[in-house]
């Protein structure tokens, strides 16, 4: 018996041994050289890279700086925010809770768990939405990303935000279209908290991080979080400028969609755990039941990412997305099955790519600089590393990683940060006509005030502050100032926000702006002056004109560049290659 066991073990060891192909030293040199070149030519402040293969760490390293002013170099233990890579932690911990629960499944209506007070924007969604719908972005509610960017009140709980979801209308019929929603991941976190009787943070810590030994991984909105992570940077007129770390708190209370930070060393454990279908490298007994985990890797929604696919004949290789799963996307890269996600929060950007059939994985994360070129660079590093792990000839080199997407496709010109124009009040209506508080039942309050040097300021959420310039009585252009300045005036994102005021009988009665920045929906969201706009009840009674077709040429331009930003926090890509 013992003898057979030893023999079996030996067989396992030898077969693993023969499969293990760590990179040769010349491959590692080529990889290091590729990464260093990519970091330099794309103005990446700091970078964290981890590669695994057959349960082994092939590489875990830092490049550049965690903090430029403090001269702190990035290492394999530097903490970077991983944004939406958090979503796989949420789906994994839910798989664990469900596997032990026995009664609730992926397809149990969450109404049955949350009870009769729970509401989404219509009765069908309220009654039928399941965890599978939330985790696969099938509900039809768009991202409403602007509300997340500016941040909810510090004291808002997940339960509070869940109550507001009923005022965030869906834009597509249930289960018909992919609409990426961080708020639905927040809701999934709330559901599992209700079911398990513990916070999502405690569940992730106890059931995943502790068991996997991920000791330097945490939540950016928990105590110490802000101090522990590296400094986020943005490019302004070619120079890396730090941005306020407190902006990372805008993720709260939507933590289950994006609050985790981690290190290269810790992420090797996370990748090996998934490549082993729920086991650590040392233990045979799975930490999470493999069958439940497997469902999170399976196709749940048709693939929505054509825009970022690489395909022949334009590119020499193909990387074609197939489906969204639960916290994971499936693609075929050069014919290999790839499970991946990208992440972005404030100016942090990350990619995690797993090749389950090759037992290989890559993690890359940076603390900036929030340009489409910088985000493409993170992917280029993942491509080059993937090719080495897969034993394929790399299709990128130190020259094309800097020119990308050239020579295959023309590089889009990136605008530099501009001087915000001098403030000018060139309309006859008085500033005081606009000042006041404008409300929306789902998205909170916007305040219009007169501030320094007599300009009109729009305040929204925890950090939003825009200087708004009149074009005529109704149309204003907004530039973010203070903490969020880089949203409208950093390199590659020099676009104002469109703001409209509604006049009824000569009086200002409402304000409109785009809360949903990413979808193709032209509608702006209405905030009612001195009240709270309720899309269900109030629109008709107050005679507010909610139909607004925005898309003159200039507005299109504004939207598409904001699209790029939202996708950073989200999954998707960043350069629309
Ligand atoms: C939350 O904080 C805001 C101010 O930031 C305050 O107006 C509000 O009353 C607080 N709400 C609760 C429930 O404490
Ligand atoms: C964050 O930093 C504090 C203080 O340095 C440390 O005690 C804590 O362990 C760190 N947290 C993580 C998750 O690394
Ligand atoms: C890099 O790749 C491009 C395109 O495949 C090729 O034209 C170029 O010669 C290569 N450069 C180097 C230095 O290998
Ligand atoms: C950008 O930097 C250049 C010099 O590097 C300077 O001449 C120019 O004024 C700067 N532009 C802005 C808008 O700061
Ligand atoms: C006011 O000035 C802006 C430029 O800041 C200009 O685009 C707009 O047409 C002007 N409006 C009027 C009514 O003069
Ligand atoms: C956009 O506004 C129009 C007109 O009010 C309305 O019919 C339509 O349903 C709205 N679309 C969405 C997605 O809210
Ligand atoms: C509402 O606004 C749209 C677009 O600006 C306009 O075409 C329409 O006539 C307006 N409807 C009413 C009732 O004012």
From TrEMBL:
Residues 32-381 form the Beta-lactamase-related domain. Residues 1-18 form the signal peptide. Gene3D superfamilies: DD-peptidase/beta-lactamase superfamily. The keyword 4Fe-4S does not apply. It holds the Pfam family Beta-lactamase. This is Beta-lactamase-related domain-containing protein. Keywords: Signal. The keyword Zinc does not apply.
């Amino acid at each position: 018996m013992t003898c057979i066991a030893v023999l079996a073990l030996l067989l396992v060891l030898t077969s693993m041994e023969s499969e293990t192909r760590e990179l040769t030293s010349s491959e590692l040199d080529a990889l290091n050289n590729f990464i260093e070149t990519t970091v330099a030519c794309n103005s990446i402040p700091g970078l964290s890279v981890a590669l695994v293969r057959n349960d082994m760490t092939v590489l875990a390293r830092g490049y550049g700086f965690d903090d430029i002013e403090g001269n702190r170099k990035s290492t394999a233990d530097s903490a970077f925010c991983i944004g939406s890579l958090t979503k796989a932690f949420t789906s994994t911990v839910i798989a664990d809770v469900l596997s032990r629960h026995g009664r609730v499944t992926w397809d149990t209506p969450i109404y049955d768990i949350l009870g009769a007070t729970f509401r989404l924007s219509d009765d069908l969604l309220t009654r039928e939405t399941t965890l599978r719908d939330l985790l696969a972005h099938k509900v039809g509610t768009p991202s409403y990303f602007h509300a997340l960017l500016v941040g909810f009140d510090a004291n808002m709980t997940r339960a509070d935000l869940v109550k507001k979801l009923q005022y965030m209308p869906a834009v597509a019929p249930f289960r018909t279209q992919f609409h990426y929603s961080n708020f639905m991941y927040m809701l999934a976190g709330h559901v599992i908290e209700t079911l398990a009787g513990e916070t999502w943070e405690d569940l992730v810590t106890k059931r995943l991080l502790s068991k996997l030994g991920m000791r330097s991984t945490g939540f950016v909105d928990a105590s110490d979080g802000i101090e522990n992570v590296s400094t986020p940077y943005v490019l302004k007129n070619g120079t890396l400028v730090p941005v306020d770390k407190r902006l990372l708190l805008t993720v709260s209370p939507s933590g289950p969609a994006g609050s985790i930070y981690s290190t290269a060393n810790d992420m090797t454990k996370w990748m090996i755990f998934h490549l082993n279908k729920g086991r650590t490298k040392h233990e045979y007994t799975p930490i999470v039941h493999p069958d439940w985990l497997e469902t999170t890797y399976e196709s749940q929604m048709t693939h929505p990412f054509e825009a970022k696919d690489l395909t022949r004949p334009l590119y020499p290789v193909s990387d074609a997305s197939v489906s969204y799963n639960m916290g994971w996307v499936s693609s075929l890269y050069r014919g290999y099955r790839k499970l991946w996600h990208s992440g972005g929060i404030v100016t942090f950007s990350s990619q995690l790519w797993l090749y389950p059939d090759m037992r290989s994985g890559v993690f890359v994360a940076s603390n900036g600089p929030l340009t489409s070129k910088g985000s493409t660079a993170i992917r280029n590093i993942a491509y080059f590393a993937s090719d080495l792990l897969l034993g394929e000839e790399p299709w990128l080199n130190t020259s094309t990683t800097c020119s990308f997407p050239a020579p295959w496709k023309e590089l889009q010109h990136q605008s530099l940060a501009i001087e915000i124009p001098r403030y000018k009040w060139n309309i006859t209506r008085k500033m005081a006509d606009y000042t006041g508080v404008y409300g929306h039942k789902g998205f909170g309050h916007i305040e219009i005030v007169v501030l320094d040097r007599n300009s009109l300021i729009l305040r929204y959420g925890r950090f939003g502050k825009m200087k708004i310039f009149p074009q005529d009585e109704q149309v204003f252009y907004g530039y973010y100032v203070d903490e969020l300045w880089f949203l409208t005036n950093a390199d590659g994102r020099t676009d104002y926000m469109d703001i409209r005021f509604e006049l009824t009988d000569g009086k200002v009665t409402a304000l409109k702006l785009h809360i949903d920045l990413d979808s193709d929906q032209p509608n702006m969201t209405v905030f009612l002056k001195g009240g709270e706009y309720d899309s269900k009840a109030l629109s008709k009674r107050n005679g507010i004109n909610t139909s607004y077709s925005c898309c003159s040429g200039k507005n299109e331009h504004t939207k598409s560049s904001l699209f790029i930003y939202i996708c950073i926090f989200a999954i998707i890509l960043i350069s629309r290659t």
